[in-house]
Amino acid sequence: MPAALVPLPPTPFLVADACAAGCTRDQLRHPALHTPVRGVRMAAGSANDLDALCRAVALTFRAGDAFSHLTAAALLGLPLPAHHQPTERLHVSSSPGSRSRDAALLVGHSGVLAQQTFRHRGLPVTVPARTWLDLGSMTGTDAGDRLTREELVVLTDAVLALRHPATTRLALERALSWFVGGRGRRDLRTALSAARSFVDSPMETRVRLLLVASGFPCPVVGADLLAEDQWVARPDMCWPQARIAIEYDGAHHYSSQHQMCSDVARRENIERLGWRVVVLYSHDVLTAWKATCGRLITAFGDQGVDLGRLADAPDTPVRARIVVARR
Residue 308 and residue 297: Cα distance in Å, rounded? Predict the structure, then answer.
């Protein structure tokens, strides 16, 4: 009578561990299992799940290895370019002097220091500042993972918006200061100059960049608007001197009746203070930008403000508070 098969370990697992426990090669070839890298098995149904894929690959990590570049960005929840498929290739960085990882699924890098990594949801990942430096090295490359300069600004805004772990402009400036000779340093400096804190979405970044490229002064981002001592609203962007606010509404703003009612009430409260609210949708930004600029120029004229007299709003480490008198 044949001996009973030893059950496979819970996935993911190392093949060496399964064999040592008495599992057979036939069991390891079961179609319910997937081989992300040599010597590892995971559930085939999770092969397109980034978190599960990383947990499987991490079983083979040496001391000092960490997920980096676009893989770290994805694990940190940063907005990736639309063309990037995070499970197609995993970026892994090794400590200085170590041989970079080599596998069909992996893109190997070297030179990451121990203090530039941390445990994020149980996985070794480069800290946001180091991840940002690595992303800067991917601008203008010919690889499929390349980033445009606009995408780098989007990612920089998102890094500044991180709360867990929080990452400040000062932290990025310090990281850049020792990145002497690093690839993409000029693009990183330009992106940091254009970036702003308190941005809620990639499209808000793109709106701001389009505004500046079209000759408008850089607006204040994510400020709290108060009527004397009472909080009124937090416009996505605004020009306080002109009393003009911009709200970018994505699909979720008009897919919920409750959200739509809340938006209308908030805008009415802003307008009672003598402000003008300009609402933008994706069509206004991606298809009809020239007409959108015309709407904004009209708004400045209606408010009696000369565009040429306004300066760019700087980035601030603390959310701006704009207090206006009740009318």
Answer: 11
- Enclosing H/E stretch for 224: strand 224-227
Phi, psi of 193 (to 5 degrees): -65, -35
Report DSSP state, residue 77: T
213-324 fold: Endonuclease; Chain A (3.40.960)
Give the length of the chain.
327
Q: Give tens-digit pLDDT for 282-294.
A: 999 999 999 999 9
Q: Residue 282 to residues 19, 98, 204, 287, 310: CA-CA distances in angstroms? A: 55, 46, 10, 8, 26
Count CB-CB contacts under 10 A for residue 248.
23
Give one DSSP letter per residue of 78-127, joined into a string: PPPPTT--TTT-EEEEE-TTSPPP--SSEEEEE---GGGEEEETTEEEE-
Tell me the two tokens of residue 138. 């991917």
Contacts of 82 (CB under 8 A, 6+ apart): none
User: Which string of DSSP letters, residue by residue, matches 229-294?
Assistant: TEEEE--SEEETTTTEEEEE--HHHHH-HHHHHHHHHHHHHHHTTT-EEEEE-HHHHHT-HHHHHH
Q: ∠ CA 72-62-50 to the nearest 5 degrees?
A: 30
Which pLDDT tens digit goes with each residue over 178-189? 887 778 999 999
pTM of the shown model:
0.92
The C-alpha angle with vertex 145 and arms to 141 and 147, in degrees rounded to 5, equals 60
Q: Which residues, in sequence order, are bridge partners of residue 14? A: 40
Token representation of residue 211 = 């505004």
Ordered by start, the domain boundaries in the chain are 1-60, 61-194, 213-324
Provide the 3-class DSSP secondary structure of residue 212. Answer: helix
pLDDT of residue 213: 97
C-alpha atoms less than 13 angstroms from C-alpha of 132 in its C-beta half-sphere: 31
Scan for tokens 């330009």, then name that residue.
Answer: 190
